[in-house]
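note to self: dont lose this again. the chain is below, predicted strucutre after it. 105 aa total, dont forget to put it in the shared folder this time
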Amino acid sequence: MGDERINVCYGIADTKGTYSKFAGTSICSLLENTTGSVTVHLIHDNKMPERNIRNFQKLVRQYDQEIIFHDISERWGYIWERIRNRLPGLAGSRCTVGMFYRLCI
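---
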């Protein structure tokens, strides 16, 4: 086998910027323990703080790997809103837009 690229995807909705540190820890562990070429795909919405995007880029660059950001708010955000409107019980549940993004993967 040749040098096949490993693609790993994360789905994050992080308006407060607090969940990114957990994703960053996971990405760091992935890159520390993988010898092959890795592309990290990060699915997010337009509410992700710019500083978190820069931190992800810096982290992945340290390992000479690639990260691609996919802002899916325009394409998928309206679907999440329609689901929440049809299932009002979701608002108080543990279902989040981040979970929805991971289901879209």
